[in-house]
Amino acid sequence: MKVGARIYHIAAWITLFSALAVLSVSENAAAISLKVVVNPNVATLKLDDGPIIVSVKSQEKNLTYRWELSGPGRLQGQGPAVQYLLPAQLDAASASVVIAVTVTNQAGEERREQVEFAITAPPTPTPTKAPMPTSTPEPMPTATPTLPPTSSESFSLEDLEQAAEQEKRVRFEWEKKLQEMDAARAQVQAYEQQDISAALKIAAWQRFLAVFAANNPYTVQDDELRQFAQEKIRYWQAAPSVAPTIALEIAPTDAPMPMPTRSEIETWLAQANEYFEKTWFLTPENQNAFALYQKVLKRDPANAEAKTRIFDMMEQYRQKAEESAAEKPDRAEILYQRYLTIAMYARKQFQDQQLAREIAQVQEEMRQLKRPKTTPTATPAPTLIPTSKATAKPTNAQLAPTPQPATAWVDPILGMSFVWVPNGCFQMGSPPNEVGRDIDENPIHEVCLNGFWIGQYEVTQAQWRRVMGENPSFFAETPNGSGSSAYPVENISWDDTQEFLKKLNAAAQSAKTDGQAPVQFRLPTEAEWEYACRAGTQTAYYFGNDAAQLKEYAWYLENADGQTHQIGERRPNAWGIYDMHGNVWEWCADAWNETYIGHPTDGSARIANADEMRRVARGGALNNLPWFLRCADRHWDWRDNRNFARGVRIVRAP
């Protein structure tokens, strides 16, 4: 399952928003938010007007659409955009038209919206009777060709070019405003983590809404951010009023965390139970039952009500998955993944051995899913294309060159091993016959990159702790992670990786000697990641197309036993890089875009014309089925979201 959603921008002309419905819905109604857009922006049409486009903008992929028309005319097309064709005539002077769409996601959850407008008939001219001819008209003489009319004006687009430049400037300013808005959202979220009153937190979100009240005409993301702020305000308005206190003495560092008051826990439980009744089990982010029950159990591990609800959510997900397995395997897969998200937490929280056996049973049920996928064609074992001695750019038939024996480099700060990835070109994306491919892997396109250094392994918990001072990992073996030094760090957001890199680069700057250029680090771009993963191959996995061999190369659903594993235990690719398939998803630098149209061909990160609130992750993880581990598979998550299956691998900046 690819978590979250993808925003569709489908319009035939410049999008002018008229009938809008922005929805934040429960898991029952699928976290589908959508807008129905009429292009151009009209309330009334005339019969002699051209056809119009009605489209849907949504935040989830793999949706199905059912369109309905009430009124004269007809709809043409299908999918997220249809064309409304006006009738030739009306029975009355005007008519009302209603166009409705029902959107369904892979889990079978639906949302219905509609738009309305009127059609008017142009006035009918009074007919006049032509006089009868009195005699047979003489034939008209053949017209003599004449010269075209002269004009003092020459053709020019200068004024339109100026208008286009102005439009680009306006769009750029709105993009900057959206980035500023997202940064402010993160600032307020950090502010509310302080031990301060709910009134101050509410005031911070209200100020956010006041400053960013203007509607962005180019995206729905600003609407979502305002909606998020409003949800935060409602949450803190419902929280108990606790007067802030001033500590007169500094508690010792090893003092236990003060227990929350009973009223605080009861408030969390009440809110969690409300989300539970709405079936907001795992969504929306940070406003769901699971998140609040975890909060309760962190402070009150023996809380029976929270534990019961945790198991209730697991049971509902599993039951729905089993009911869907035969007819809707895609939906079943999503529901099983949600079950595993909660079950892996519960197994660790409650030390329940029976639950460990149930997880194994669910994993076996997932393996048996008869998910329809593209039938693979017979393909030979992967071969590395020989290195060309010429310095010219490789052709399509001669993709990535085989590297010479890799020159390893170890960073002087953390002792991380890096492998040199040679310059070359490759075909990014997947062919139509690849098993498990998704539409966001289109179109296949050639990318040519300069050589770079990439981490031979994923960043470990010990390395992260040395830089950040703490180990956030879900699978840390001890509270401070001291027993899990060789395991990949996880439960980190994209924003967390930026803070890690900032501190690591500062340490590298301090460690450099006079006259020496400082070593700097960054995330790999999406193209760099896929190129390094393929290691000169063009097959589904870097070892070939046979997923049955994955157990030798990756930790995933079949063999991970619901947990991460030490780095470097599976077989590497041809360039000596480990764990590119499985273990944890790896954050990349790119912002998310659902297509490769307009993607950079030089290996750089895609930031422009992409959703910067969502960031790319690659490689698959411990709880995924084989097709999520393919070299070409793409995934995204919110940049501030943390998850036990999200980790990182870094590259050395040139």
From TrEMBL:
<dbReference type="GO" id="GO:0120147">
    <property type="term" value="F:formylglycine-generating oxidase activity"/>
</dbReference>
<feature type="domain" description="Sulfatase-modifying factor enzyme-like">
    <location>
        <begin position="417"/>
        <end position="652"/>
    </location>
</feature>
<dbReference type="InterPro" id="IPR042095">
    <property type="entry name" value="SUMF_sf"/>
</dbReference>
<dbReference type="Pfam" id="PF03781">
    <property type="entry name" value="FGE-sulfatase"/>
</dbReference>
<dbReference type="InterPro" id="IPR016187">
    <property type="entry name" value="CTDL_fold"/>
</dbReference>
<feature type="coiled-coil region">
    <location>
        <begin position="157"/>
        <end position="194"/>
    </location>
</feature>
<keyword id="KW-0175">Coiled coil</keyword>
<feature type="compositionally biased region" description="Pro residues">
    <location>
        <begin position="122"/>
        <end position="148"/>
    </location>
</feature>
<dbReference type="InterPro" id="IPR005532">
    <property type="entry name" value="SUMF_dom"/>
</dbReference>
<protein>
    <submittedName>
        <fullName>Serine/threonine protein kinase</fullName>
    </submittedName>
</protein>
<feature type="region of interest" description="Disordered">
    <location>
        <begin position="366"/>
        <end position="404"/>
    </location>
</feature>
<keyword id="KW-0418">Kinase</keyword>
<dbReference type="InterPro" id="IPR051043">
    <property type="entry name" value="Sulfatase_Mod_Factor_Kinase"/>
</dbReference>
<keyword id="KW-0808">Transferase</keyword>
<feature type="region of interest" description="Disordered">
    <location>
        <begin position="121"/>
        <end position="153"/>
    </location>
</feature>
<feature type="compositionally biased region" description="Low complexity">
    <location>
        <begin position="394"/>
        <end position="404"/>
    </location>
</feature>
<dbReference type="GO" id="GO:0004674">
    <property type="term" value="F:protein serine/threonine kinase activity"/>
</dbReference>
<feature type="compositionally biased region" description="Low complexity">
    <location>
        <begin position="374"/>
        <end position="387"/>
    </location>
</feature>
<keyword id="KW-0723">Serine/threonine-protein kinase</keyword>
